[in-house]
Specification:
The chain is mainly β. The chain has three domains: 3-180, no CATH class; 187-276, Sandwich (Immunoglobulin-like), CATH 2.60.40; 290-414 and 498-589, no CATH class. The strands form ten sheets. Strands 2, 3, 4, 5, 6, 7, 8, 9, 10 and 11 form a ten-stranded antiparallel beta sheet that branches. Strands 1-27-26-25-24 form a five-stranded mixed beta sheet, with no helix packed on it. The chain has a four-stranded antiparallel beta sheet with strand order 15-14-17-18, with no helix packed on it. A hairpin with a 6-residue loop joins strand 41 and strand 42 (530-535). The longest helix is centred in the first third of the chain and has 9 residues, at 9-17. The chain is elongated, with a radius of gyration of 32 Å.
């Protein structure tokens, strides 16, 4: 389902401040629901106490009216209270005035003949995961009803001692707590995404997952319970927004964690589980065995899970999505816009970018595995800058491009530290780190920004090229006017130089995956001859992609000249020359 966030930040703030007023809408869920669960009620009348609890009161959908048998309160009578319900703001009012089928004897010559009155209940959203007393998928859960001022109940009766003396007595409500609303949506599915290249890291790292409900979340949203068997692995309940069916959650892994553990999720009486572990790092060189040759006018921008890719159509200057089956979707046609430009992808299969129409720019996020469904997020008046593995976008106002904003459920929130740096290059990972190239008094510097801290990675002229989701940065230091020397940096090991293919003197890194494999393009001393290369983690040797090509491409004298993209499953996109000297775009996979 598309979530449209307009670009008016003041209105978004106003919506936040007025959120409490919107809670009256929870009564809509009580109307839609078919039951009210009376958790506890105690009354005192004419010297007697009556109480009940954990009763499920039937109610037809589309109304607030109730028919409550007196026997549910322990009263031995065929009386049924016909309670007429109405609403005002966040208060439900029930009125009733019913005669008993026959007098109900209270003892001491007293009998009851009629019950009448008004009950007023304050409706408020349940903040926990569920009605705490409900263990059934059919129970209402998301609205708590608590007795409030204005309630008054009376019983009419008589005392029969020689003569009948009529009387009216107030009923004292000692306790009244109920839950109403719609049944808690059932948990349909749950996944935790572990990139193929992910392996144990000396840093605390994060994975992400998705939960999907069988039906949309009720008013105010809903919490899906999450728990890890391994207490060292951090996971918290995730709230699915109102009217949405899915949400993304974070799994926090401690340093050097390998597992295994089991992540449990539960909602609506349904429990799901996912087994989670992190494999050993892949360090050994490999050969590519499969390839896809693209039309030359399609220049790859990024490789997605399952073999899909995003490419720029150089003839239309708009981007396309090519599925693993080879189907091509023009994103401007999918989004019904003039032009669509992708700025990033992630391992969950999200595609981020900007759509351009006659009305201006629109930042978007869509899922590559369901591209025909259209965008999940659509933000009028903003351009997408980059995004991370959790699906969080950084955006900017095209009329004020120097400012950067983090997009959350409320709207774009300003990132003052990053904006003040005016970065030339910007990458953003799942840990919330930004990799930037900033201009200082001494020239360009590669830097890491985390919160309000800025760390310059190299104190010489340098630039940042990429960062992975475990906090490893890659970039290059300028050596003279022609050459750049690539480096890799992390908090634990500081700066290390990356090896170059033999015979090459300069390089630019394109990407680094979570396993620490680095893809880049190297240039020879003549400044013209280029080749693409891979560097395994901790390796002192760079591997030329020419040596890793499938055998039939080697026989046809293909030569790789430029690296374009690296996938988490170790696929690469490159620019190459075929045996006839024609330029081609290739996607290579192990």
């Amino acid at each position: 389902m598309k979530r449209s966030l307009n670009g008016l930040w003041p209105l978004a703030l106003l919506g936040l401040f007025l959120a409490q007023a919107a809670h009256a809408d929870v009564i809509d869920d009580v109307v839609r629901g078919t039951n009210i669960r009376l958790n506890a009620a105690r009354i005192h009348v004419k010297g007697n106490d009556y109480g009940t609890g954990y009763w499920l009161l039937p109610k037809a959908a589309g109304t607030l009216n109730l028919n409550v048998p007196a026997r549910q309160f322990g009263i031995n009578s065929d009386l049924v209270l016909r309670m007429h319900g109405s609403r005002s703001g966040n208060v439900i009012t029930w009125t009733f005035n019913d005669a008993l089928p026959s007098p109900y004897y209270l003892g001491s010559a007293n009998s009851v003949t009629r019950v009448r009155g008004t009950l007023k209940a304050l409706a408020r959203q349940v903040r926990g995961a569920d009605d705490p007393y409900c263990d059934s998928a059919a129970c209402p859960h998301n609205v708590e009803l608590v007795l409030t001022s204005g309630s008054s109940v009376y019983v009419d009766g008589y005392t029969d001692i020689v003569f009948k003396f009529n009387w009216t007595e107030p009923v004292y409500m000692r306790q009244f707590v109920a839950y109403g609303g719609v049944p808690r949506p059932r948990l349909s599915s749950m996944v935790v995404v572990t990139p193929t290249s992910r392996c144990p890291s000396p840093n605390a790292t994060e994975l992400y997952g998705d939960v999907v409900l069988s039906s949309p979340a009720p008013t105010g949203g809903i919490l899906v319970d999450l728990m890890s068997v391994d207490a060292r692995v951090g996971v918290l309940p995730v709230r699915i927004p109102e009217a949405q069916r899915s949400a993304r959650f974070t799994v926090r892994l401690p340093p050097n964690w390998t597992g295994p553990t089991v992540i449990y999720g539960a909602s609506g009486g349904v429990r799901r589980s996912v087994r989670l572990s992190v494999p050993e790092c892949i360090r050994n060189p490999f050969l590519f065995t499969r390839y896809l040759r693209l039309e030359y006018h399609l220049a790859p921008l990024g490789l997605l899970k399952g073999g899909a890719l995003v490419a720029r159509n150089q003839e239309t200057d708009s981007d396309v999505l090519v599925t693993a089956k080879g189907e091509t979707h023009r994103l401007n046609e999918v989004l019904r816009v003039e032009k669509a430009r992708v700025v990033g992808i992630n391992t969950a299969g999200d595609v981020f970018g900007t759509a351009y129409t006659s009305k201006g720019a629109h930042a978007f996020r869509l899922r590559s595995d369901d591209v025909k469904a259209g965008p999940e997020v659509w933000l009028d008046g903003w351009e997408a800058v980059t995004a991370n593995a959790h699906g969080t976008m950084l955006v900017r106002d095209p009329h004020k491009p120097e400012g950067l904003f983090l997009l959350d459920e409320v709207g774009p929130a300003p990132l003052s530290v990053v904006s003040k740096l005016k970065p030339r290059d910007l990458r953003f990972n799942a840990l919330g780190e930004a990799a930037v190239t900033v201009e200082t008094e001494k020239g360009l510097r590669a830097a890491r920004v985390y919160g309000d801290k800025v760390n310059v990675l190299v104190d010489t002229e340098s630039e940042v090229h990429a960062v992975n989701d475990v906090g490893v940065f890659v970039g290059a230091v300028r050596e003279g006017d022609k050459f750049t020397r690539p480096f890799i940096w992390s908090n634990e090991k500081e700066l290390r130089w990356l090896p170059l293919p033999e015979g090459f003197v300069s390089a630019r890194v394109v990407a680094i995956n979570d396993g620490g494999w680095v893809l880049g393009t190297a240039t020879a001393e003549d400044g013209k001859t280029q080749t693409a290369f891979l560097v395994p983690p901790e390796s002192k040797e760079a591997l030329r992609l020419d040596d890793l090509l499938p055998e039939d491409l080697k026989k046809d004298a293909y030569r790789v000249t430029r690296a374009l993209a690296l996938a988490e499953d170790f696929g690469v996109a490159v620019l190459a020359m075929d045996g006839q000297g024609q330029r081609v775009h290739l996607v290579l996979r192990p």
